């Protein structure tokens, strides 16, 4: 008789050592013991270890693995450092000689499944659809996305606010091929009170009723647009926040999706969506936590929702001359800003050098500045869904001695005027001498 049995294995973690035991009982003479790794749903069996009893030799077909075997009543294969690729079923085949004829071999086999787990390798929290314009006069949705990579199986992901778990309404998984990020019903950039004419702001023609009560007149630079030069200091910073207030507690919506990766791991994405309220959400701490059977304690990544303030602007060269290329750059803020703000540049009271009304980006480049830009004021608006801030800086353009001044000389006289005076003087001298 011949019986083969393999002890079941608990899940193991990548890097652990694993021992596969093939137990058998027989009263016959053993011929061989062979271990196979089964792939492609059982269609392919890869031989990984062989014991040939006829010649008492061992063969290991596994690279970089040390083999160990017990030749009495069991064959043992040891995997010193398992990888995710080792995950799957294994079979042990035992062959003995038939009693009637030594030319016939009787076979029996057993199988076991090796479940290899891998802890997540990275976790990050970001805001969906940023940087993006927003409306400070209308409530809108905001979505946080937590991305967890490198785990097997898929981890359990959940959100916390200020250290407290968030009770969220689950959303169904999106259809195949659709984006796993929750939709964000953001409007196109609406006019804010630094850009709206006073007549519109006063009459409440923004589609949301009158956003400016009489007790709270519009703030910003609207009143300064008509007289824009000397009344504005060299650098001005103002902050604006949305005007609406949500009185009710926010309702959170949660979606969890995962997608397999080619290396056998899973990328998990969890989204948290709610109606943003800058009055209570500004400086709120949100964290994404991950539980996984291969982790001894949860992984965590956190962000704080913060509106931009205190922009730091640099201008190069610091002493611009006519014909230079001037770069005005936002280097950062006095605080850590999240989500990433949207930057918009405008020239106060006029268009930009290239003729456009505004320019998006952290840097504004003025190619070959003319003398006419001397004293011009530039405004940078940095905004995210928590609020916005305006910064103004003045461009001073100095003369460039390497560039001719044009049709006039240093005394402001047109060309040829000095020669004309010389000819006139010689003519008068000649006339006086003749008389």
Automatic annotation (TrEMBL):
SMART domains membership: IG
Entries under InterPro entries matching the protein: Ig-like_dom, Ig-like_dom_sf, Ig-like_fold, Ig_sub, Ig_V-set, Nectin/Nectin-like
Keyword entries, A-Z: Cell membrane, Disulfide bond, Glycoprotein, GPI-anchor, Immunoglobulin domain, Lipoprotein, Membrane, Postsynaptic cell membrane, Repeat, Signal, Synapse
Membrane-topology descriptor: Lipid-anchor; GPI-anchor
Listed PROSITE patterns: IG_LIKE
Record-linked Pfam families: V-set (PF07686)
Superkingdom, taxonomy of origin: Eukaryota
Xref: Gene3D superfamilies: Immunoglobulins (2.60.40.10)
One GO-annotated biological process of the protein: homophilic cell adhesion via plasma membrane adhesion molecules
Entry function: Involved in synaptic inhibition in the brain. Selectively regulates inhibitory presynaptic differentiation through interacting with presynaptic NRXN2.
Protein's name according to its UniProt entry: Immunoglobulin superfamily member 21
